Amino acid sequence: MNVLEFQKVSFRYAGENSDIIDHLNFSVEPGAFHCLIGVSGCGKSTIFRMINGLLKPNQGEILVNGVPIGAQKQYCGYMPQKDLLFPWRTVGENLALPLEIRGGLSKRERRERVEEALRDVGLEGCADKMPAELSGGMRQRAAFARTILTGSDLLLLDEPFSALDFLTRVSMQEWLHQQWRRSGRTILFITHDVEEALFLSTSVLAVTETPIRTLREIPVPLERERSRRDLTRPELIELRESMLDALKRQVRT
Ligand SMILES: Nc1ncnc2c1ncn2[C@@H]1O[C@H](COP(=O)(O)OP(=O)(O)OP(=O)(O)O)[C@@H](O)[C@H]1O
Ligand SMILES: [Mg+2]
User: Fold this and answer.
1) Is residue 142 part of a domain?
2) Is residue 16 very low, low, confident or very high in pLDDT (cuts 50, 70, 90)?
3) CA-to-CA distance for 44 and 24, rounded, in angstroms?
4) Which of 30, 56, 144, 194 measures 20 to 30 Å from 115, CA to CA?
5) Where are the alpha helices (DSSP H) in 160-202?
6) Is-contact 205 219, C-beta < 8 A?
7) For ligand 1, what atom is nearest to the CA of residue 16?
8) According to the model, what pLDDT value does residue 120 have?
């Protein structure tokens, strides 16, 4: 069964006079890692906000694990493009938030879960720090840990690494890919960085037209186990250039 399915989904922001998503169909298999690429403003974050239930489609249906999202709670973890951590809460209090919302755990149990998640992302002992005391890469990992604590197998990550310097970004990509390989979760990841998309994805989903009617699936010819050096293979360089060309053509029109 598909983890995620869009069935003829259309969306228009209130007050606008045209749809930005138009009868979109696509589906995602369990355990996939798809990067979503497309020019700025084409509607990528809008797609995530619909999956997450923050926005309702005007038409069509979105299913997660075969069930309409309107009938479910806590079916995905969402890391938004901005405002990752609340600056007035400690790192530990930030991470405890999805657990508080879900309820059913004592304060001590929440604390244990949070410490375990921090250990998983290499931030052991950071629970009592404020977000401002962490480096950019550490904050991203904390936000990612909070996303994981939603307990969902479907993760939506909206440009999580775009604000990081190159070296931190590269090491976060490797770290995330390893987390994904270990966990078997399904990840959708928005990026503008074609190399990042190729390194991370099982296949890339490219927006090639607006309004969005289809997502073009571009398989990445790499094993799950991979290294950045694989990106220097001739066929990967060729793929990167053709993806860049396709994106550039859209910017011009
Ligand atoms: N609340 C809103 N009301 C009206 N229009 C909106 C609203 N939010 C976004 N839009 C418009 O919808 C379009 C898609 O926005 P969206 O944020 O989904 O783009 P995006 O593909 O994520 O872009 P970027 O790559 O720059 O993040 C844009 O033209 C944007 O201006
Ligand atoms: Mg966006």
Assistant:
1) yes
2) very high
3) 12
4) 30
5) 166-183, 194-200
6) no
7) 4
8) 82
